[in-house]
Design a protein that fits this description.
Elements (H helix, E strand, L loop, with lengths): L1 H19 L4 H22 L5 H21 L8 H24 L4 H4 L2 H23 L4 H26 L3 E3 L3 E5 H18 L9 H29 L14 H22 L3
Antiparallel strand pairs: 1-2
Helix pairs in contact: 2-3, 2-6, 3-6, 4-6, 4-9, 4-10, 6-10, 7-8, 7-9, 7-10, 8-9, 9-10
Length: 276
């Protein structure tokens, strides 16, 4: 299982590098859309849609949502960054509400688990994740900036996994995800601090350690929230993994749950803090 997990992870990283550094911003944005649709297919399963007709109907709604976002952002012309920021701000506030739902589970399920609400959440969260990717990749040095965002989320996940397995004793959210611990959470934060310390030596003088902290730590916290939210939805739906398309990892949602929460906040904070 571990070997399979490592092989899949390497394949994903190589694929990501291939797309990031061989496609321009427009083509990369379009190439990501099918991945979002795959995640939407898995979300339809978590919603409890069992017939292909209903699942394809949800997928069609997600495709329509992405198309509307594409046109609204003027993807093929001068990108409407202001609209993208507004959408990312709105969904970042929504994640603050989701945090309360995670804290209040299982009693909070009455608020978010009805199928229409869960479906709307999937459409909004997945669509705005794509919007955030579009905004990031269109920034100067966009591929490197998006890669940096991925690294922040990955380190939160890796730190949580390693520290949790080695030292984990105190449960972080036992009713949502019994495997996650406070020790793992601290391990993820420690890796973020190491990342920041390693970057300060070669960053331009305009980018201070305080700026990196203000960007990385909140994004890392949101990535943990995204992971917990997906775990909560899976637990309520009675499934272990969102899918099985990625050997050793489960589904697409299982790999991007942290990104769904983190990327909108990442681009918001980056544009706010950027000295350029």
């Amino acid at each position: 299982m571990f070997k399979q997990r490592v092989i899949t992870a390497i394949a994903l990283v190589l694929g990501l590098f291939g797309l990031l550094f061989n496609l321009n911003a427009l083509n990369f944005s379009l190439a990501v859309a099918p991945v979002v649709l795959l995640a939407g297919w898995e979300w339809s399963n978590l919603m409890g849609l069992r017939t292909k007709r209903h699942r394809f109907a949800f997928l069609a709604l997600l495709a329509l949502s992405l198309a509307v976002a594409c046109l609204s952002l003027n993807l093929f012309g001068a990108l409407n960054v202001s609209l993208g920021q507004t959408l990312c701000l709105a969904v970042s506030v929504l994640w603050a509400v989701i945090f309360l739902w995670v804290q209040g589970y299982p009693s909070s399920a009455i608020l978010w688990s009805p199928r229409p609400i869960l479906g709307l959440l999937g459409l909004v969260l997945l669509s705005i994740t794509w919007v955030a990717i579009v905004l990031i990749i269109h920034q100067p040095h966009g591929p490197w900036l998006l890669l940096f965002a991925f690294v922040v989320v990955a380190l939160a996940d890796i730190g949580g996994y390693v520290a949790g397995n080695l030292f984990g004793k105190h449960k972080l959210a036992p009713r949502v995800s019994p495997g996650k611990t406070w020790e793992g959470f601290c391990g993820g934060i420690l890796l973020q601090c190491i990342l920041i310390a390693s970057m300060t030596s070669f960053m331009p003088e305009k980018i201070t350690t305080g700026m990196l902290l203000a960007l990385v730590i909140p994004v890392s916290l949101y990535s943990v929230l995204g992971d917990l939210f997906e775990s909560m939805v899976k637990r309520h739906s009675g499934v272990k993994d969102s899918g099985n398309i990625l050997p050793g990892h489960g589904g697409v949602l299982d790999r991007i749950d942290g990104l769904i929460a983190a990327l909108p906040l990442f681009i918001l904070l980056f544009l706010l803090l950027s000295p350029f």
